[in-house]
Amino acid sequence: MEIRRARAPQRQGAVLGGWLEEVPEGAVPTVTWRLRIRMEDHPGALARVAIRLADLECNILGFSVLPVPGGVLDEIVIRPAAGLTKAHVARAIRDEGCEWLGITDAAVEELVDGSTASLATASRVVADPGALADAVRRLLSADMVTVVPAAEANPARTENGHRVVFEAGDGRSVVARRMWAPFVQLESSRVEALLGLLGVVRENLAGQIAMTCDDGAAVVLRQGQPRDAGAVCDLHGRCSMSTLYHRYHTGMRTVPRRWLHRLLLPPRGLSVLAVCGRDVVALGQLVALPEGDSAEVSLLVEDAWQGNGLGSGLLNRLAVIARARGYRELSALCLPGEDGVRRAALRAGLRPADTLDANGVLRISM
């Protein structure tokens, strides 16, 4: 992929980095610059910089503070006086004892509240995932952003300027580059938050997803609702006593009607159903535990659908939801010698413990 850039004619005086917008002949240009300065975090430091910029007849249009180790990094957007060069601004900042990090051109349209701009950028990417590179470029004020296969990202690579790599979570990586200033952690956190949001959207946590079982049968996985009580009752009626015993650890042939609402909408949790046609053929639950970062899972798969990959698919869906809610571990109460949940977890790409703990609980790492 070839990327071409046309550099505009330089104005009078030296130019330090950045690109200047080409202005039609005879027009009066409106120039806006974004500069970054590292300074000590003590009273009066910023005031001196503001006074020096005022002496240069620069109008400050925007200002933000980025915390960095050993001080603060100030990003200031200015409209310079006619004839002023970037070299003059850099020299004035250094004369105030501040570290000059870089300067680049900015657009007046970018001068909106930072939170508003971030939310607007996220909305555009949710609506159009193909706009990811441009969204990251805007968040970082980067010179160039590319989306490449993860195997080609090479995070350790060094080159001219500054470079940072983010994992997009779908086998791709986002590579950002810019010449005018180093990237800082706060900026990286913004991009990571955006990618996390896109991951949640991609996994469609609140909606339904389709799954194909080993024999080619298609089912839909979706969250359970009170209206599913009748279908869940029928599911239990089609299950053998052995299947019910492995799920509830007590002898039962039918589920009491008063349990149905609690199965579908458990306190501190949710249920996920596997639906084929009008039938619910499997039921999974995810319930928060008091530990805070752990949740309990349970599975019930109709006998005729067992051994068909449905249990592992249902467990994987529960794990995706649990991860989005901040849980780091799943647990399942199992009978001695029972390994169905462990096999399902392995097939779902999770990391179950080799054995049950003293309470008969299988710990599953995500």
From TrEMBL:
<feature type="domain" description="N-acetyltransferase">
    <location>
        <begin position="219"/>
        <end position="366"/>
    </location>
</feature>
<dbReference type="InterPro" id="IPR045865">
    <property type="entry name" value="ACT-like_dom_sf"/>
</dbReference>
<dbReference type="InterPro" id="IPR000182">
    <property type="entry name" value="GNAT_dom"/>
</dbReference>
<dbReference type="Pfam" id="PF00583">
    <property type="entry name" value="Acetyltransf_1"/>
</dbReference>
<keyword id="KW-0808">Transferase</keyword>
<dbReference type="InterPro" id="IPR016181">
    <property type="entry name" value="Acyl_CoA_acyltransferase"/>
</dbReference>
<protein>
    <submittedName>
        <fullName>Sortase-like acyltransferase</fullName>
    </submittedName>
</protein>
<dbReference type="GO" id="GO:0016747">
    <property type="term" value="F:acyltransferase activity, transferring groups other than amino-acyl groups"/>
</dbReference>
<keyword id="KW-0012">Acyltransferase</keyword>
